[in-house]
Amino acid sequence: MIWNPNKECMSRDEMSALQGKRLHKIVQYVYHNVPFYRHKLQEMDLTPDDIRTIEDIVKLPYTTKKDLRDNYPFGLQAAPQSEIIRIHASSGTTGNPTIVGYTRKDIGVWSECMARSLTAYGVGRDDIFSVSYGYGLFTGGLGAHNGVEMVGASVVPASTGNTEKHAKLIRDLGVTGIACTPSYALYLAETMEQIGITKDMIKLRVGAFGAEPWTENMRAEIEERLGLKGFNLYGLSEIMGPSVSYECRMQHGSHINEDHFYPEIINPVTLEPLPKGQTGELVFTTLTKEGMPLLRYRTRDLCALMPGECGCGRTSVRMTPISGRSDDMLIIRGINVFPSQVESVVLSMKEFAPRYLLVVDRINNLDTLEVQVELRQEYFTATFDTPAAIDELRKRLADKLRSVLSISAKVQLKAPNAIERSQGKSVRVIDNRKLK
Ligand code: ADP
Ligand code: ZN
User: Fold this and answer.
1) Whole-model pTM above 0.85?
2) Are residues 247 and 350 in the same domain?
3) Do 295 and 30 contact (CB within 8 A), yes or no?
4) Do residues 112 and 189 share a domain?
5) Which of 31, 184, 191, 395 is the most buried (most CB within 10 A)?
6) pLDDT tens for residues 306-351?
């Protein structure tokens, strides 16, 4: 089944024509409604009339996460506030999160993109589908939720946490589909094994996994342990949220909803566009978004666009799995974490030297984060034999980290000079997770 064959199976010529028309319109729209873009285009001596076909896109400026941060909170919003019906936020680097406002039409487009994904996975009206991405400011939960309602399956808004209860619900309700991070799927499998729920007691058959990188080995393990078929779901909040692209039953790359999000691959160093098939940084232009349209947004995700047709009948271009990032962002339990966020917390507390290390691991399929920080000599000397003071400090740091990162970290305070100095570029992160 294909949700919207008119859009998912267009000929290449029709698609290019549609993209060109939409690009012209969106450039016109941001030119008139977002001073940030108007100034950028004026600086480059461009007017919306210079952008007529999709090939003209290379003339346009890039947008980065820093631009979003510098214009916090609503600087890049194009629609008037009265038209915005929902606001999500994604973790930023240091300081401000990225705020994304959606109009009613945006939510409709997003739901349809999610419905396209679910249909490609084989989810339909008869399914009982658990959304186990976090609900809240993160786009995963509500984004997937709207799509499940659109296809007409019964949505179980389980969110994350409370895993034992969730496992029992999966068994008792006969839940057939689930959307969550691949690492949460493994954690769920583990929990089920612990409480004695076996594969033959549950009806799970489809998993929509994303929000973090995963591998074929992880896919095989999840499929084996939960007895389902796992599909990739990709997205980012700046562009929309989950379902910017999705795997079909051929499972050979993920189809991009390119009538709404135009993809390019660039060399992240020279910023030159790369030909189809080459790996580089993925860049998206939103072609229909009203709330916060973005021109040539640099995702920092590394992948390639795949040439050629797909056996499923869809003609939309596919992307390979994300193979890495062109920045230092970590994804821990599905949450974006930048080492610079930890740094800003450490530097804001006078007790610490500017020496820290993030140790990331995966224990029982759950990501863990430990932050090691060095005490300043004066402070170390003063508190050396007052464990209560050290405990209080550790707790204060842990609280601050939790509020900035949105996940909890174990804190280890170190004596001065205890964190190993590296030659050259300092090592801020040790990631022991094996993408098995
Ligand atoms: P979301 O709410 O969709 O997770 P965020 O903005 O919080 O959006 O995070 C987006 C980032 O998560 C992407 O830029 C990418 O690095 C990562 N990501 C999302 N889905 C996938 C996926 N299927 N495979 C690999 N990485 C993914
Ligand atoms: Zn396909």
Assistant:
1) yes
2) no
3) yes
4) yes
5) 184
6) 988 999 999 999 999 998 889 988 999 888 898 888 988 998 999 9
